[in-house]
Batch of 2 targets.
Target 1
Amino acid sequence: MTTPPVCDYTDSDYQASFWDSGGREYEDRCEAIALKRLLPKSGKLLLELGAGAGRNTPRYAGFERVVLLDYSPTQLEQAQARLGRSDRYIYVAADVYSLPFVDGLFDAATMIRTLHHMADAPKALLQVRSVLQPGATFILEYANKQNLKAILRYALRRQDWNPFTLEPVEFAKLNFDFHPQAVRGWLTDVGFAIQKTLTVSHFRLGLLKRLVPISILAGMDSLFQWTGALWQVTPSVFVRCKAVGRDSIPPRVGRNACPACASAAGTGERSRRAIPPSIGQNDILSYFKCPECEHAPLETVGRDSIPPTAGSKEKNSYLTCPSCKRKWAVRGGIYDFRETIH
Ligand SMILES: [Zn+2]
C-alpha cells in the first residue's frame, strides 16, 4: 500500500539522540518561537503530521484535541509516555499518502520536520488539504535547499547540486531539501493560500552554538525570522497557510461514504465537516475513513466504543471497513492503519 516509499522511524532513538542529547536546544527554541507566532490562539481539532515522540505537541495547548500522526508506532509510544493517554490526544499510525480521515475534519494541521522525508511532497500536501476544513490553518516547516551554506558550498565548487533550481535534492536516502518557490507552487496548487513565511535557524553552526549562549542565539533568530517575508536563505522555513480553493466543490456523499451508508454516516456534508460537537470516545470513530476504499464510517467489532484510555482491555480491539471488509488494529491506544490485519 505504501507508495511512494515512507521514511520509517520505527525503533529509532531519534528523540533521544537528535533532540535530547544532540545539541539541538537552539533549533528547538527557534521552532517554538516560530510556532507561537504562527499558531491560532485556539481551536478544536489539530492534526500533527509526523508527530514523532510528541516534542512539539505541548505547544498546541490552545486546541481542544490533537491527533498525533506518525508512520512509526514506536515513536507514538514515546509520545504516549510523554503526554499520557487521555481523550485529549489521539494516536494514529498511518501513511501520509493515504490518510485515514474523513474530508474536512480538522480546523488546523502542522507538519514540522516531516516534509523533509517526502519523496512525493505534492501528493502528501494534497492529502493534508483534503482533511482540512475550508479556512483551516496549516503550518508547514520544510528544509530549504537554497540556504546560505549550500549557496557558499556551490559557489566554492564543493557541492554538485545547484541550490537555485526548483527540483528537490535528496542528500541522503529519503532526506530531501526543497526550493521555497517549488513549495509555494505545490501549496497553491493543492488549495492553500500562504499567509506568512518565517525563516528559522539562521545560526545553525556548530561553532556559534558552542561559543554564544543559546538564549542569545535564539533571541537573534527571533528577530531575523521576520525576514522570511523578504527572502529565504535559512536551512529551515516555516509557512502558515489557509485552506482555500475548494469551497465551491459540492459535498460528495461518495467521497467518504457509500450511498447505502449515508444515513449511518449522516449526510455527505457532515462527512466532510465532521467536527464533533462534543468530545467523547465514540466521536473518535467518526474521524476515520477507510484509507483503501474511502468508505466512512468505519466500525468497531465486538465493542460499542473504542477504548483509548489507560487500563482498557483492548487487546483484540480493531476497526473494520463495512464496505471492503479490511481491518486495522487498535493496540495500546494506537490506531494502526499501516497494514490491514486478518
Ligand atoms: Zn474500505
Note: Residues 248-255, 259-279, 304-314 have pLDDT under 50 and may be disordered.
Target 2
Amino acid sequence: MMKSRISIRKFENVTIPDRDIEDIIEIGTKAPSAGNCQPWRVVIVKDAATREKLAEAAWGQGFVARAPVILAVCAVPAESKEKYSERGETLYVLQDTAALATSLLLGAHFKGYGACWVGAFDEETVTSILNVPAEMRPVALIPIGIPDGSVTKKRKRRPLSEIMVRECFAK
Ligand SMILES: Cc1cc2nc3c(=O)[nH]c(=O)nc-3n(C[C@H](O)[C@H](O)[C@H](O)COP(=O)(O)O)c2cc1C
C-alpha cells in the first residue's frame, strides 16, 4: 500500500469531508518526535481566496490552490529548545516536522487521497497570509484532494543496491 504513494499535483474539484481531514491529521501525529515533544501545529486551509494566496506565495505553483484543502505544517522551535537546547531548536524541530509531513502524506494516501509536499514558498508571505505567530515557522504546505484519475506515473528511485550500505562505507 505505502509503496504506491506518489506526489499528486492534479486534483478533482471535490471537497474533502472534515472527518477525513481530521483522520489524516491524526495519522500525521503518529509520527515520532524527539522526546515526544510534538513541536508542531497544522493549519487547515479550505478558503479559496487563501488557497490562491498560498499558491502565489509558493512561487505560482497553481496546483496548490486547486486542491480543496491545504495543510500548512508549522514548527514550534521553542518547544524543542526547551528540552534539547540548540540541537532541538535547529535540528530536531525540523526532523520532527518533516516526520509529521511525511506521515500526513502517507495518511492522505491511506485514506485514498492524493497530496504533495510543497516546500518552495516565501516563508514571510505564508506567515503573514496565515497569521502564523512569531514563535512558529511554516515549514511545509500540503495540498490534498482526490487525485485526478489520469495520474499514475511511477517515480524513479535510486536502486536499493546504491542505497544499502553493508556494515560501513568502504574506505
Ligand atoms: C522538502 C521537500 C520540498 C518539496 N517541495 C516541492 C514543491 O515546492 N513543489 C512540488 O511540486 N513538489 C515538491 N516536493 C515533492 C518532490 O518533488 C517529490 O517528493 C519528489 O519529486 C519525488 O516524487 P514522489 O513524491 O512522487 O515520489 C518537495 C518534497 C520535499 C521532501
Note: The pocket of flavin mononucleotide is lined by residues 6-7, 9, 61, 116-120, 155 (CB under 6 Å).
